Amino acid sequence: MEPLTCSGTCALAGLPIQLVFQEAIHSVTPSSQPADLYLAPGFVDLQVNGFAGVDYNHPRTPHGEIARSLRAQFAIGVTRLYPTVITAAPHDMQACLRNLADARESVPEGHAIDGFHVEGPHISPEDGPRGAHSRQWVRPPDLDEYHRWQDAARGRVRIVTLSPEWPQAPRYIESITADGVVASIGHTQATAAQIADAVASGATLSTHLGNGAHQLLRRHPNYIWEQLAEDRLMAGFIVDGIHLGAAFLKSAIRAKTVGRSVLVTDAAAPAGAVPGRYYLAGQPVDLTGDGRVVLAGTDRLAGSALHMHRGVENLMRLAGLPLAEAVRMATINPARAGHVPGRTRGLVPGERADIVQFRLAPSGEIDITATWIAGVRVF
C-alpha cells in the first residue's frame, strides 16, 4: 500500500497539519494551508451493546448484521470498539462472546473490534444499582467462568465490570488484572472500604459513573463520591443528555479531571435505528421518540441511542469543554483506560493510522467526512 496523505486542523492541538500514513502514521508536519476540516484520532468506544438495530447480546446474531452495524459506526467516526456482553445465563454469555469473536475473524470490518467488554454478571442484585441487568442471572465472581469467557473470546476479553461488594471481588480483581484485563467498578452499592479494596487489588476504571445507581442516595458517604474522589480510577460517562444532567456531568469531569474522563455510548441495538421495539440480551427494549432506550413497559433506561460524534458535541454543549478536550475523551482517554494498543498518544508517528476527518459547524455540530482504520478508508 502506497503512503496516503490528508490535511486538516488537528482537533487536539488546533494547528493545521499534514499526515502521511499507511497502516501506521509515518509523519505529522505543519501545514501552511488553511483548513476547514478537522483531523482527530478515530473514536474509541469501550462500551457498546449493539448498534443499527443489531444486538451483540444474542448468541446467534448473523455475522453480516454485525458487519453492517460496524459500518454504521465507521460513519460516525468510531474506529475501535469493545462490543459489550451483559448479564445473562452462563452459556448465553459464552455463546455471545464466541459469536462476536467468530464475526471479528470472518468479516472484513471485524478488525475494528479490538476486544470485548463483559459487563456483569458479578454486579449488585439490588434494584437501582442493577440497572437493566436481569436479576435472575446476577452471580458472584467466578474465575473459572472468566476463563471460559476468555476461551470463547479467543483471549480478547479486555474489560470486566463488576461490583466490589462481593467478598470474592479483591482476589478476582487481582487475578484478571494480572492477565492485563481492566477491572472496572460498576452497577454497585459497595461501601467505601470495598471500593478501596478493589482499587488496591487493581481496579482502574468506573463504568458509566453516575448511572446504574439508586434513585436516592445518602449525601455522604456514597459509592459515587468515593469513585469520584479516587484518583487511581478513570471514569466513563454516558453523555447523551439523558443519562446525566449537565450539572453532575460538569462536576464529575472537574473531579476526575479531563485526563481521567472517558466518553462512552453504552449504545444498545436501537442506536442508529428508528423508534420502536428492539431487544437487549433477550429483554424487549423500546426506543422512544425522544431518544431514550427503556425496558419495554417501564421508564428504566436500558443503554442508550447515543452516537459517538454526538457525544463529543454534547461534551462541548453540556459540559462546556473545548473541542480538544472533548475529542481527547473520545480518543486518547478510552484507549488508555481500555488498554487499546497503538492509540494512546494521538496523531503522532508510530500510532495506528485510525483517523477521523470532520467539519465543525458554528453551532457545534460535527459532520464526519472520512474515517480511516489502520490506513484503510472505511467511510
Q: What does this protein look like?
A:
The chain has 379 residues and is an alpha/beta fold. It has a single domain, classed as Metal-dependent hydrolases (TIM Barrel), CATH 3.20.20. The protein has helices at 63-74, 90-106, 143-152, 169-178, 192-201, 223-229, 246-256, 308-318, 323-330, 332-337; strands spanning 4-10, 16-21, 25-30, 38-41, 43-48, 50-51, 54-55, 78-86, 116-119, 157-162, 182-185, 205-206, 234-238, 261-264, 276-280, 283-287, 293-295, 355-360, 366-373, 376-377. It has an 8-stranded parallel beta sheet with strand order 5-8-9-10-11-12-13-14. The longest helix is centred in the N-terminal third of the chain and has 17 residues, at 90-106. It starts with a strand and ends with a strand. The model has no long low-confidence stretch (mean pLDDT 97).
